[in-house]
Amino acid sequence: MSTRVLSGMQPSGRMHLGNLLGALENFKRLQAEYECFYFIADWHALSTNYEDTSHIREWVRDMLMDWLASGIDPARATLFVQSRVPEHAVLHLLLSMITPVPWLERNPTYKEKQENIDGRDLSSYGFLGYPILQAADILLYKGNLVPVGVDQLPHLELTREITRRFNSLYKPIFPEPQALLTAIPKVPGTDGRKMSKSYNNTINLSDTEAQVRAKLKTMVTDPARVRRTDKGNPDVCPVFTIHKSVSAPAVIEQVNKECRTAAIGCIDCKKLSADAIVAKLTPIWEKRRELERMPKRVDKVIAEGTTRAGSVARQTIAEVSEVMHI
Ligand code: TRP
């Protein structure tokens, strides 16, 4: 059987440059090589955001449009929405029967989130079982490779443990999935910390050119370079990290040299990085505008993806029912 790639993302509204460079470009590369399943994990989003669900549908759609605008191709990859394929819930239930609660309780992501997310009650059953749902997502499609960030490794490890347990209790029908870590370094946000929605430091795919340029102007640089005549150190400058992920090699080299000698100032350097970001986002903006004029096309992508994913999912559930004698 061919190698299958599977990954999911929680709908959290519009995507940012960090998502584009970290995840989407990776998805795009993989779709050329493997049989890929990419889905929007709207049920997972409920595990931490069950109180206000009013924007979930809109966010699902927005995310899918950003995927399409970024070049994720529904002719190459199966794109779908988790809640449209109810078999995810069926497999989640079956796997929950064989998963010891202590495996879930010792998951570092579980503990960390319970401690760090204030103002939300995360004592729910669904939140504890989050990794079982993720295991179901992966096993339903017999995914071999799972492109994710390092934060997802504990979940992947748990999926592998559940897989081994299932395979040894019944029949070895599931491959043990492997994480495929993205090599791209963390993209810094405008304040120099990791680009993240929760830090409010993102450059969004939905920003206009003027917004991108304005954000770059306020971005932090090498803190030791105060005056234009001071020599800078690109190795500690977040703007240089942005250059390394978006600019042409010649520009990276130029900035790297001229910052150290103070031949170029931060304002000019930031302008060059804004130019590179704008060049990268312009085709995405154009495609997104086109998609916004064709809502039916987005509906069709979701409908076709659901059909394809659903038929694989139903086959797996039939096989699981068979080996479990239910
Ligand atoms: N937990 C993942 C995240 O928060 C999203 C996700 C859900 C996922 N199911 C998945 C990722 C299956 C990979 C495979 O980013």
Q: Summed up, what is this model?
A:
The chain is mostly helical and 326 residues long. It has helices at 17-31, 42-48, 56-69, 87-98, 101-105, 108-116, 125-128, 130-140, 153-169, 209-217, 238-246, 249-260, 266-292, 295-324, and strands at 4-9, 35-40, 77-81, 145-148, 178-181. The strands form two sheets. A three-stranded parallel β-sheet has the order 1-2-3. A two-stranded parallel sheet has the order 4-5.
What descriptive keywords fit this protein?
326 residues; mainly alpha; Rossmann fold; Tyrosyl-Transfer RNA Synthetase; 2 domains; three-stranded parallel beta sheet; 8% strand
Plain-language structure description:
The chain is mainly α and 326 residues long. The protein has two domains: 4-188 and 295-324, 3-Layer(aba) Sandwich (Rossmann fold); 207-289, Tyrosyl-Transfer RNA Synthetase, CATH 1.10.240.10. The chain has helices at 17-31, 42-48, 56-69, 87-98, 101-105, 108-116, 125-128, 130-140, 153-169, 209-217, 238-246, 249-260, 266-292, 295-324, and strands at 4-9, 35-40, 77-81, 145-148, 178-181. β1 (4-9), α1 (17-31) and β2 (35-40) form a beta-alpha-beta unit. It is elongated.
Ligand inventory reads: tryptophan
- The level 1 CATH classification of the largest domain is Alpha Beta
Give the second-level CATH assignment, the architecture of the largest domain: 3-Layer(aba) Sandwich
CATH topology grouping of the largest domain: Rossmann fold
Structure class: mainly alpha
| Average pLDDT level | 94
**Most strands sheet:** 3 strands, parallel
> What is the approximate shape?
elongated
The tally of structural domains comes to 2
Compute the number of strand runs.
5
Strand order in the sheet with the most strands? 1-2-3
* Corresponding CATH superfamily of the largest domain: HUPs
Radius of gyration: 22 Å
H-E order = EHEHHEHHHHHEHEHHHHH
Residue stretches low in confidence (pLDDT < 50, at least 5 long) are none
State the distance separating the first and last CA atoms: 26 Å
